[in-house]
Amino acid sequence: MHEQTAQEYRNHIAGQWIASATGRTFPNINPADTNDIVGRFAASDAGDARRAVQAAQEAFAGWRDMPISQRARILLKAADHLDAHASDYASDMTREEGKPLAQARDEFIRSAQTLRFYAIEGQSFGGETYPVDDADMLVYSLREPLGVVTVIAPWNFPVSIPARKIAPALITGNTVVFKPSSESPLTAVRLVESFIAAGLPAGVLNLVTGSAAEVGPTLVESPEIRAISFTGSTAAGRQIHRAAALNTRTQMELGGKNPLIVLADADLDLAVDLVIKGGFSLSGQACTGTSRVLVDRPIRAAFNERLMRRTQSLKIGPGAQPGNDLGPLASRKQLDSVLSYIDIGKKEATLLAGGHRLSGGLYDAGYYVAPTLFTDVTQDMRIAREEIFGPVIALIDVDGYDDALAKANDTEYGLAAALATRDAGLAHRFARDIQAGTVKINRTTTGNLINAPFGGLKQSSTATFRESGRAGLEFYTQVKTVYRA
């Protein structure tokens, strides 16, 4: 497809698909084949964002007052729509951000499950009654929606992350302005289409595409915005948190430098599998991805050898082609950033595998990087401390559990962490000792349940309500206490 023939997609505001008032669009490029323009999307400005906020504000009273069973029915119908179109929508996702097709389809199916969870769970989420000494008085609490909320989502999980933000917001009676990443706007369009097909009233869910610099300030600083849920870099999260109004809640799911500790008693084949899946799935572009592997010194040589062989055997190519383990990086910006960190790693540590951009044949048209391992990594190196967000893993030597724990906790981040061991006692200690919001034992650092809280510690999240599970409902509601004679 040539750029001049690419389909044009618009914002969705107040129930209508409308072009940006700027008249400008931006191209969405296939990272597996940069000659392929997936579509052109509205390059919105502050005026477009303001119209979306106004539409959400005008729709709020009607949506809040709609019986919750009817709101739930809409979420369930949207889930059915996602399921019915999962294969077609997965092709769109793979084309615009490079994810292997099977993983993209699974993400749509998982997102449908998320909508169903909140449709049901939201109907049992309410206030409480409190015992009092006065027999003539009733004291109870109400949980009410906040109002207009902003959802700002990343490109790496472009349907599952917004689904777990939008679904709890809607079921609790809030209205939403949704700003997706400019690397995955088509998937955002498909999610909104699912809600439209389910009969969502006009203005309840509004979609605005474009650069964060143009639309972000309005979606963050407007006094009508009562909550902001953001997933992205820690630097961007800090900026949003500072800019939000005093009465605006913020929920920031940010960066990570997630460790996997491999102790001397670990099942080495299992540990290697955890590294491969946790560190290289989605080409390392996951906030919970394994980026540091802390290996007990007695098994260092054997483990590194097995891991190197597995890494070099991975198949890399377009996500649309079955059998490939890794696809391309999502954008030119990602490619340049990852390659710069690889260059840094070559100066700091010892390259064990990969370490280059792939070239020749189909690779020349895409953003492909060989999965990369560095060994002899120490705590002071940049590749051990900074989030790379690509298929680059730092191997760090440790001397037993206590040394591994100290090095694992020696980071500003605290999103996810994992331990590979056969020792049940150490597994129990690790769950208590590790400074991370998501803890895994003999499991990958990646992945979380729909019905369990998700979030990090330290600079990986704001110290507010978690995402996912029942905690996701709490974030979008405020408590009012009633005393009645």
Model description:
This protein is an alpha/beta fold and 485 residues long. The protein has two domains: 3-254 and 461-484, Aldehyde Dehydrogenase, Chain A, domain 1 (3-Layer(aba) Sandwich), CATH 3.40.605.10; 258-449, Aldehyde Dehydrogenase, Chain A, domain 2. Helices cover 39% and strands 21% of the residues. The strands form six sheets. It has a seven-stranded mixed beta sheet, sandwiched between helices. Strands 10-9-8-11-12 form a five-stranded parallel beta sheet, sandwiched between helices. A three-stranded mixed beta sheet has the order 1-5-4. Strand 9, helix 6 and strand 10 form a beta-alpha-beta unit. Helix 3 crosses helix 4. The longest helix has 21 residues, at 101-121.
CATH fold call of the largest domain: Aldehyde Dehydrogenase, Chain A, domain 1
| Stretches with pLDDT under 50, minimum 5 residues | none
**Radius of gyration, taken over Cα atoms and rounded to an integer in Å:** 23 Å
| Number of self-contained structural domains | 2
Shape: globular
